[in-house]
Design a protein that fits this description.
The protein is about 40% helix and about 15% strand. It has about 350 residues and is α/β, with parallel strands linked by helices. It has one domain: Glycosidases (TIM Barrel). Strands 3-4-5-6-7-8-9-10 form an 8-stranded parallel β-barrel, surrounded by 5 helices. Helix 7 links the parallel strand 6 and strand 7. The chain binds ligand IDC.
């Protein structure tokens, strides 16, 4: 009898060693980052699986709320900003910064944007997205593919291109459990919620043909600030839809936080896919006190947040100093004031 127990225990031990719940690459990732964030027990994706929306919250495969902490690329359409979309950079973000989600921002109409550039550059943009998505998959991080509407103001302007783009990427990544789609960064210029809804109703089914359940994020009026308006008339008949709120803490304060509270009170699933502590221009002075208020509110409701941006462009929102020459493996001395604050927060 005793021998049976002993044999059983040894077998059990051997099984545990052979069938590690996380693979070799993830086991290698068992490091403690500067932020104290340890991924010893698996990567964000191996732990949480495919995300779903439950009530107002983003939840994991077990239905438990997940706190997304992300960083956004700068526009991948600007050649100089593109080198930061690579595996080494994402690994640093994951292991040393406490980041579990990376957003790939692709402008639609600005310089070399997807809707205004030539076919060769468009191919390159898809390639950069692919690099980012595959690196995130390998590292077990979530990744948001962002159709960065800004100058174009009304997402309907390039609806046809958007449908074709989302058809391509949702087909390409249909088997990926880590991909989220953001279909219009910041509608503005007076684009109403009903117009945005009509755009969403055209694009969501295109994605759903390939991906039944990936999270789809819809921008809201006035540069993705009016989640309170969206809450008054949410999209009906779709699952796993979230609504974007963006904040730049030195510009957007209590009045804007109130909009988020109204949206939550009205049971709208909100996600913050872009923020910084500076002004809405991407420059100006930081207001870390206001940024702290925002994160407090978002964390309280387990609303995910993604910081703009992983760039060394000389502007306040950049997480890296202009002097940073590295494209990954960033050191503390490479971080801007904003970058240092963020890593501390995360
Ligand atoms: C800014 C970039 C800046 C670039 C500009 C182009 O930081 O380098 O020249 O876009 O228009 C947003 C937008 C985001 C902006 C950012 C800062 O989504 O594209 O990036 N911002 O202005 N909304 C509010 C602020």
């Amino acid at each position: 009898m005793k021998r049976t127990i002993a044999t059983g225990l040894i077998t059990c031990l051997l099984m545990t060693l052979v069938f590690q719940p996380w693979g070799a690459s993830q086991a290698k990732a068992a490091v403690k980052g500067n932020s104290g964030n340890t991924i010893k027990y698996g990567t964000p994706v191996s732990k949480n699986g495919k995300l779903k929306v439950k009530g107002t919250k983003l939840v994991n495969k077990k239905g438990k709320p997940v706190q997304l902490q992300g960083v956004s690329s700068h526009g991948i359409n600007w050649d100089v900003r593109q080198p930061f979309v690579n595996e080494a950079a994402l690994k640093t973000l994951r292991d040393n910064w406490g980041v579990n989600c990376f957003r790939i921002a692709m402008y639609t109409e600005e310089y070399n944007g997807y809707c205004v550039t030539d076919p060769a550059s468009r191919k390159q943009l898809l390639k950069t997205i692919d690099t980012g998505v595959k690196a995130a998959k390998k590292l077990g991080m979530y990744v948001i593919i962002d159709w960065h509407v800004l100058n174009d103001q009304n997402p309907k302007k390039h609806q046809k291109a958007a449908k074709s783009f989302f058809k391509t990427v949702s087909k390409k990544y249909k088997k990926y459990s880590n991909v989220l789609y953001e279909i219009c960064n910041e509608p503005n210029g007076g684009t109403s919620w009903s117009v945005i809804k009509s755009y969403a109703k055209a694009v969501i089914p295109v994605i759903r043909k390939n991906s039944k359940s990936a999270i789809i994020i819809v921008g809201t009026p006035n540069w993705s600030q009016d989640v309170d308006i969206a809450a008054g008339s949410p999209l009906k008949g779709y699952r796993n839809i979230m609504y974007a709120v963006h904040f730049y803490a030195a510009t957007h304060k209590d009045d804007y936080r109130k909009k988020v509270q109204t949206a939550i009170d009205n049971k709208l699933p909100v996600i913050c896919t872009e923020f910084s502590a500076c002004e809405a221009s991407g420059n100006g002075a930081y207001d870390f006190k206001s940024a702290q208020e925002w994160l407090k509110l978002l964390r309280k409701h387990k609303i995910g947040y993604v910081c703009w941006s992983l760039s060394n462009k000389p502007e306040a929102a950049s997480l890296l100093k202009p002097s940073c020459k590295r494209t990954g493996g960033f050191k503390k001395s490479d971080l801007s004031q904003m970058g240092k604050w963020l890593v501390k927060q995360y």
